[in-house]
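[Q] Does anyone have a clean C-alpha cell version of this?
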Amino acid sequence: MKNPIIPIAATVVALLTISACKKDEANGGILPPVGNSPLRDLFTDHITQETQTFTVDATQGGTVTGANGTRVTFPPNGFRHANGTVVSGTVQVKLLEALKIGDMIWINTQTVGDDNGTDRLLRSGGELRVTATQNDNELQLGPNGMSVMVPTENPDPLMALFTANAPRDSGMVWTPVDSSNLTVVSDTSLNTNFYWFTTDSLQWINCDYFYNYPATTSLSATLPDGQPEDSTMVWIAFPSENAVTGLNYLTEQDLFTSWQVVPVGMQATVVGLYRNGSQYYSAFSTVSITDMMSVPLTFSPTTLDQFQQDIDGI
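[A] Here you go.
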C-alpha cells in the first residue's frame, strides 16, 4: 500500500493535549517468557514501569502525547461503556510505546505476524498498547474510533496496521487489519514524520508489513554448559527491519531456536539475558545469518540498567 507524504500542521492534531503522565500501576499485555522462565516477574515489571497514564475529559475529547512522541486523539463523546452508552466525566487513558528494538526487547513484544496461518517476521514501524478505563471499568471506543500518530525517522509508505489482543504461548503474534488506511504525514513545525491512522478498538497496535525475503532459514542459539535454560531468555534483533523475535527452548534438542523462519544473509544480533539469584548476565552476538545457523552465546555480568542501554544501542 503506497501513500503520499502529506503535510499537516501541529495545530490540527493538537486538540486538547491532556494532563501529565505517570507510571501505570496495573499489569496488562505481558508476554509469557520463553519456556517457564523465572524472568517472568522482570518483564511484568517492565510493562508496568513503561505504561503511561493520562486523564481525558470524555465529553470534550482530546489528544494525549506519549514520552516517545506518539499522539492519540479521541473525539468528543468518543468513549462507550460496555453496554454501549456514551461515557461522560473523566477517563484514564493508558499508553505503552515500543517504537524501537530496545523497547520491544525490554517489554518482550516481538514483531511476528500471522500471514494466512503462517508466522512470518514483520518490518515494524513501532508497537503501541492503548486502553481506557473509568472507575477501573474498561471502556470501548465509539463509532468514530481514535486517531493515532506514531513518530518515525524513516517513513515507509508500505507500512500497514496490525493488531493483537493477547500473546500466544510462543509470544506476540500480530494480525493484519484488512480495512486499515495508514498514511505518512509530516508535522512541519517539528520537522517530524508520523504514521497516521484511525482505529475503532483499544488493544495492541503495530505498524508493520510482511516483506518477501529471497531465502529464509531457522536459527538456533546454544548456552554455555551448565547454564540453566529456565533462567535464560533469548531474542534475535534485526536492525534494518526494526524487528525482534524471541527464541523458544526445545528440551529434546537442548537449544533455543526460532519458531518462525528468519532471512538468510541479513545482519542480526542474538541477545541473551540470564539471571542467577540477584546477578544478571547478558550475551550479544552480531551475525550475518546463514542457512541453519547455530550461534553459541557467551554471557558476561551486567546490570539491568546496562542491559537496557545495550539493547537500546542495537
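[Q] Thanks! Anything notable?
[A] The CA atoms of residues 229 and 249 lie 7 Å apart.
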